[in-house]
């Protein structure tokens, strides 16, 4: 398989969660070109399971990749930029998929001793594919004993990795807040309930939750990533909508932050004489790396001469956390050296990281 070409093909067709129809078709076509003797392939919604039968299996090792893109207009200037308007693989899932395909090809050509289950999982960016995929029939049939995954790290040099036992990624909850007041003429604000003023004031007050309500020894983030309100410059907005995300390093702090968000909403309803509704969208469980399996991985990396460093905890979220809640395993960061970070329209990971990633995953699947 030509990894660069594979990555570029996938890069051009990013699709949102549970809409990954072309992506699934393209992945199935790559998989169909591999030796099939030891493979069983099953689709699940827009995802795919591939079971590789081991030669003398004692256990099944799972390897998961996410496959969805983000609602973002690409600005990399690549010749192979996204052909889907307003969609981009800006979180590296094109890299993740290529690495999974590369490792799968090796397994198909030289079957491992243990069984291996590849999970091509939809909807990591939302609304979350890991939790329902865990409950699916193929997962019940081929349930792994251990599982792992990787995520690209733009800030790390290519051909490096980082990992740590214990907490790696945060608990997350999406946040959607809808404001409803009374619209009207821009010249008569006193006859209206202006939802742009209410929503702006709410965004400012939200910042106080982390600064003044959360124990400074804990970690939390509340980010509003989208504000929607108004129609034209001289009409006062009747409605406003805020979209954001909450991140915490413990589930109890998540509950505290939500309570504070709701208290602020009640105060805002009274002071602005409006109604406000909150929807928490999808929630992701924290990514907690199992100490024993992560320890085995670290030892393997040392034995095989891979350069690695201790990872820092990150406030990113990953629904792979649900898989790790039920199956011992880990996630590691793979360095890809890009000046622009994750979720930026100019993310340009170095393609030399692909072969390195495939080599780490393949070695781990053969020897874990
Ligand atoms: C690794 C990464 O960037 N993951 C996403 C997960 C998004 C979860 C959900 N849609 C939310 O925004 O809460 C992230 O933004 O961390």
Automatic annotation (TrEMBL):
The Mn(2+) ion enhances activity. Mn(2+) binds at residues 91, 93, 125, 151, 343. Residues 177-266 form the Peptidase M20 dimerisation domain. GO terms for biological process: diaminopimelate biosynthetic process; lysine biosynthetic process via diaminopimelate. One of its GO terms (molecular function) is N-acetyldiaminopimelate deacetylase activity. Pathway: Amino-acid biosynthesis; L-lysine biosynthesis via DAP pathway; LL-2,6-diaminopimelate from (S)-tetrahydrodipicolinate (acetylase route): step 3/3. Its cofactor is Mn(2+). The active site is at residues 66, 125. It catalyses: N-acetyl-(2S,6S)-2,6-diaminopimelate + H2O = (2S,6S)-2,6-diaminopimelate + acetate. NCBIfam families: amidohydrolases. Belongs to the peptidase M20A family. N-acetyldiaminopimelate deacetylase subfamily. HAMAP family: DapEL (MF_01692). Catalyzes the conversion of N-acetyl-diaminopimelate to diaminopimelate and acetate. This is N-acetyldiaminopimelate deacetylase. It comes from Salimicrobium flavidum.
